[in-house]
Amino acid sequence: MAGDGLLYRVYERRLSKELESFDLPQHLGVIVDGNRRWAKAAGESTAQGHRAGAAKIVEFLSWCEDLGIPLVTVWMLSTDNLRRPPEELVALYEIITSTIEQITDAGYCVRLTGSADSLPEEMREGIARLQQETSPEARLTVNVAIGYGGREEIVHAVRELVRDLGAQGKGIEEIAEGISVGAIAEHLYTRGQPDPDLIIRTSGEQRLSGFLLWQSVHSEYWFCETYWPGFRRIDLLRALRDFCRRERRYGA
After folding, report:
1. 174-204: pLDDT as tens digits
2. Nearest-angstrom CA–CA distance, 8 and 5
3. Is 80 annotated for ligand binding?
4. Active site residue 81
5. What one-character-per-residue DSSP string does 141-205 give?
6. Where is the active site (predicted)?
């Protein structure tokens, strides 16, 4: 209905205006969930669901750029996802690579967040090449979480820290003393970046599933019932409004 569209635009403008008086997140995390369920409900193939979800990622990032949010982490493929059927994974790898190409073409800085070793060699090389083509001065940096698991990230960080301390000739006791919160943080995939202020998850699931386990200790969460391909700009604005209305205590 034309009237519904008008009401939607009016509501969207009202939300945008309301957000002008608030400080928006400097780091936004998003768990893009529900592609397969969206496809099933729409009578589409699983691959088409992933394609629709990939297109939504590119659109979502443009909304974040317009709003001045400088850093977004998008969970595109988890370590658990790597156990899906081979034919689905092949399609996923192609869709993800194409999506990263679109992200770099949009002028955003891409940073891989995850274990490249878990990905096919051709895909690893393609992502590495695309990362080299992006500008660090871009208005928006996008962490693409691929082959990512929160527990695996922490294990990886501790191993790298221990290797670094061992390479410095430190003994067992000195290595143990050198393992600290700050030292581990410097070896995470997101090292040098602020922790996420807000994490959004779609599809009605209300859990993190291991997303940014270390970094999310003081994050705010926002869950919605919408499957990811159906996520709208107005949903993002509602999430941001809810975030801005909260009093962040940081454990105090």
Report:
1. 999 999 999 999 999 999 999 999 999 999 9
2. 5
3. yes
4. yes
5. EEEEEEEE-HHHHHHHHHHHHHHHHHHTT--HHHHHHH--HHHHHTTSTTTTSPPPSEEEE-TT-
6. 33, 81 (proton acceptor)
Active site (annotated) includes residue 164: no
82 assigned to a ligand binding site: no
Does the domain at 23-150+191-245 match CATH 3.30.70.2190? Answer given as: no
User: Which tokens hold the place of 180?
Assistant: 């600290």
The identity of residue 46, as a single letter, is: T
Residue 82 has which token pair? 């790597």
Q: How is residue 137 written in tokens?
A: 């001065």
Kindly name the residue from 4, 23, 66, 81 that is annotated as catalytic: 81
Helix (H, G, I), strand (E, B) or coil at 74: strand
Q: Is 207 annotated as a binding residue?
A: yes
Assessment of whether the complete model's pTM goes beyond 0.85: yes
Q: Residue ranges per domain, the chain?
A: 23-150+191-245
**From residue 76, how far is each of 12, 53, 109, 126 by CA, in Å?**
27, 9, 16, 16
Note whether 99 and 74 are within 8 A (CB). no
